[in-house]
Write a structure and sequence with these properties.
Arc Repressor Mutant, subunit A, Rossmann fold, alpha/beta
Length: about 230
């Protein structure tokens, strides 16, 4: 069965370029030219992935992402953001809201297809499917992968998407040291366009929310981070 992909952009030539290249690779495609039209199609057609422009005439791509990630039935649909806004701050905002990848215009159709294929593969393979069934308990921290929830001494805490992914990644292999680049690649896929500095920002926020338990996330100078062993 073909994966169904929704392309959302207010520029018809961009939508046509995305549609042509994805269909040539065997994907089924849907098209939307505004945020409201995209939400309507998503609720009716349930695409397997969304290629989403940020700058739309009504609801922008960030607001669409916010709404989808708050919807229990739609929050697991992967999102690849396609935009002319390439500044690091915009990239980080997109990731924090839950985007799975981020491609800056002008883009190579081959890169777009490769990124789409990679996100779908991660979603359908063990990197997303099997791992999502895990529950991790370490120290006083309990991590429910499928529900995307973390409990600290039995009390729920509110983490951003990236904070959750970093905590889950480090806690699976306590004692192992990971570079910032490895952390980015593990939670987002290879060649993700985010600087390694953004990992430091997420770790600071994560430690703060974990309180005294945040001390278990150790900085290894000149290398990266590790989760302290039991």
């Amino acid at each position: 069965m073909k994966n169904r992909i929704l392309a959302v952009d207010d520029e018809e030539d961009i939508v046509e370029l995305v549609r042509y290249n994805l269909e040539r690779e065997g994907y089924e495609t849907l098209s939307a030219f505004s945020g409201k039209e995209a939400l309507e199609i998503i609720s009716k057609k349930r695409p397997d992935l969304i290629v989403l422009d940020l700058m739309l005439p009504d609801l922008d791509g960030l607001e669409i992402t916010r709404r989808l990630k708050r919807d229990e039935e739609l929050k697991d649909i992967p999102i690849v953001m396609l935009t002319a806004k390439g500044e690091e701050a915009d990239v980080v905002v997109g990731l924090e809201l839950g985007a799975d990848d981020y491609i800056v215009k002008p883009f190579s159709p081959r890169i777009l297809v490769a990124r789409v294929r990679s996100v779908l593969r991660r979603r359908e393979s063990g990197t997303l499917a099997d791992i999502r069934s895990e529950s991790i308990r370490i120290h006083d921290i309990e991590i429910h992968m499928g529900r995307h929830q973390v409990y600290l001494a039995g009390d729920p805490i509110d983490l951003t998407f990236s904070e959750f992914e970093i905590l889950a990644f480090l806690s699976r292999r306590p004692g192992w040291v990971f570079t910032r680049s490895q952390i980015v690649d593990a939670i987002r896929g290879d060649n993700y366009p985010v600087t390694e500095r953004s990992v430091d920002v997420q770790v600071v926020g994560l430690r703060r929310k974990l309180g005294v338990q945040g001390d278990y996330i150790e900085t290894v100078r000149g290398v990266g981070y590790r989760f302290k062993e039991l």
